[in-house]
Structures are given as C-alpha cells and as structure tokens.
C-alpha cells in the first residue's frame, strides 16, 4: 500500500527550480560570453519557442499551425537581424510583424493580444542580440542579473513575508513585499556594476526601473495565461513551466532598455566584449 504524498508546501518546487535555473544560467552564460552567431542562434530558438507557446495558449486545437508559427518566428528573426546589421532599419521593423501576422491565419482566440504580444517578443529578441553586439557581454550580464535578482528576491520575500497583493486581479501570487524586494535586489546589482564595470551612478536608479519593467512583463504573461485558462505556457522547463514563463520578465526588461535608449543615453556598463 503506497503512502499518500505529503503536501509540498510553499517551498515544494524550490529544488526543481534551482536545478533548472543553474542549467539555464550555465548555458546562457556561455552563450553571452561567446556572443556573435552562437548567441543569436540561442535567442532565435528561444523566441521561436515563446511564439509557439503563445500560439498554443491562443489556439490549443491547432498544434501543427502553432509549430509553424514558432519556426517562422525563428526564421523571420534571423532575417530581421541581418537587416539590422545592414542598417536597413525600416524594413527590419516591418519584418518583426511577419511571424505574428502569419499566426493570425485561421481560427485563434484573442487575436489582437496574440499579434501585439507576438511583436513584443520579436522586438525583444532582436533587441537582446543588438544589445550584446553594441554593449558587449557585460551589458547583457547586468540586464540578466537585474532580472534574476528581482525574480529570486521577489520569490523568497513573497513566500516568506506574504502581505498585500501587488495586482491580485491579474497576478494573484505577487505581493508588494516581493515586488519591493525585487527592486532592492536590482539596485544592489546596479551598485555593483557601477563600482566594478565603470558604469555611471545612474545605473543604481535605472536598475530598479528595468526590474519593474521585468515584473510588468511577468504580469502581462500571467494575464494572458489566465485568459487562456492555463497554469503554465508549457512544461518544457521543470519547475518553471515554459520558456515564456521563464523569459517573460527578460522580455519586459529588454523592451524597457530599447525604449529608454531611444529617449536618451543610458548609463550602461561597457567593460569588456
């Protein structure tokens, strides 16, 4: 007679999350260090998987068409990046809409949401590669650590202290304690890079702003999942759900860097390539 499983409690998923996180950080760290084509290929693969997951959530009965959308996203992003580095920006920007537009062919729920969020994912993918090429590996490392610090401290603070919810109607698990802890962690990361990488002191202020954008990226994806009636975007990453579940915050952070960068110069770390 088998024993009934004990309830996992608030820390029940921690071990799987940590193992998956270590693997992802190891692979990501190597790719960031390599840069160039290897990093671009990784970003293209992740973007394709995220578009596939978004397509699954909005049209679960069309598995073949959804795979096509994911493959198209990777292929289109390759072309967009080629145009970017040839400085043909207008055509490149128009190209970002091709894969999401292809996903609108046939039946699909929340078509406007799919198209808009799909373009955001494509833009974030292109922006991440551009940031690596123009800002070097240290700029990417700062961005990733801001998102990771915000997520990790937010997770532990939220689980430990609880308290009022940040936006219960959209993301019922996020608390103000976790949100503020995430901002504090991002500020500490900014301070570290200001000292060690020669970035401006403004990075201490910029880092929590980028962390907030990452948190909002997480909330947007949570809202889409609630509309679709799913807990995770997929089950590709043990303990984390899908690729979109893991990189939704990074998507928001990259988009924030792109927008703020268009408004003025950012105090990003530039040490090393």
TrEMBL record:
Membrane-spanning parts: 21-52, 64-85, 90-107, 113-131, 138-158, 180-206
Name of this protein: Phosphatidate cytidylyltransferase
Q: Which InterPro entries match?
A: PC_trans
State the EC number(s): 2.7.7.41
Sorted alphabetically, the keyword list is: Cell membrane, Lipid biosynthesis, Lipid metabolism, Membrane, Nucleotidyltransferase, Phospholipid biosynthesis, Phospholipid metabolism, Transferase, Transmembrane, Transmembrane helix
UniProt xrefs under PANTHER family: PHOSPHATIDATE CYTIDYLYLTRANSFERASE
Membrane topology term reads: Multi-pass membrane protein
Q: Which reaction does it catalyse?
A: a 1,2-diacyl-sn-glycero-3-phosphate + CTP + H(+) = a CDP-1,2-diacyl-sn-glycerol + diphosphate
What the entry lists under PROSITE patterns is as follows: CDS
The enzyme class is transferase
Pfam families registered for this protein in UniProt: CTP_transf_1
Q: Does the keyword Signal apply?
A: no
Pathway(s) annotated for this protein in UniProt: Lipid metabolism; Phospholipid metabolism; CDP-diacylglycerol biosynthesis; CDP-diacylglycerol from sn-glycerol 3-phosphate: step 3/3
Source organism per entry reads Cereibacter azotoformans
Q: Name one GO molecular function term.
A: phosphatidate cytidylyltransferase activity
Q: Does the keyword Flavoprotein apply?
A: no
Q: From which residue to which does any coiled coil extend?
A: none
Q: Which domain of life is it from?
A: Bacteria
What is any one of the record's Gene Ontology cellular component terms? plasma membrane
């Amino acid at each position: 007679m088998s024993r009934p499983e004990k309830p996992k409690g608030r820390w029940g998923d921690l071990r799987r999350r940590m193992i998956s996180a270590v693997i992802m950080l190891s692979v990501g760290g190597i790719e960031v260090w390599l840069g160039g084509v290897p990093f671009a290929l990784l970003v293209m693969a992740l973007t394709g998987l995220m578009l596939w997951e978004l397509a699954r959530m909005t049209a679960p009965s069309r598995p073949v068409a959804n795979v096509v959308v994911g493959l198209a996203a990777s292929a289109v992003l390759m072309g967009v990046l080629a145009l970017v580095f040839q400085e043909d920006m207008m055509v490149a920007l128009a190209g970002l809409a091709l894969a999401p537009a292809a996903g609108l062919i046939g039946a699909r729920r929340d078509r406007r949401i799919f198209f808009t969020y799909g373009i955001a994912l494509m833009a974030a993918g292109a922006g991440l590669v551009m940031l690596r090429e123009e800002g070097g590996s240290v700029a990417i490392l700062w961005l990733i650590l801001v998102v990771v610090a915000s997520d990790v401290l937010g997770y532990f603070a939220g689980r430990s202290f609880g308290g009022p919810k940040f936006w219960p109607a959209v993301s019922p698990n996020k608390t103000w304690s976790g949100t503020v802890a995430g901002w504090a962690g991002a500020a500490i990361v900014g301070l570290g890079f200001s000292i060690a990488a020669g970035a401006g002191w403004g990075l201490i202020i910029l880092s929590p702003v980028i962390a907030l954008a990452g948190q909002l990226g997480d909330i947007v994806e949570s809202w889409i999942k609630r509309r679709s009636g799913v807990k995770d975007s997929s089950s590709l990453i043990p303990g984390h759900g899908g690729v979109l579940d893991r990189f939704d915050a990074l998507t928001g952070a990259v988009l924030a860097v792109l927008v703020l960068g268009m408004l003025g110069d950012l105090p990003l770390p530039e040490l090393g390539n």
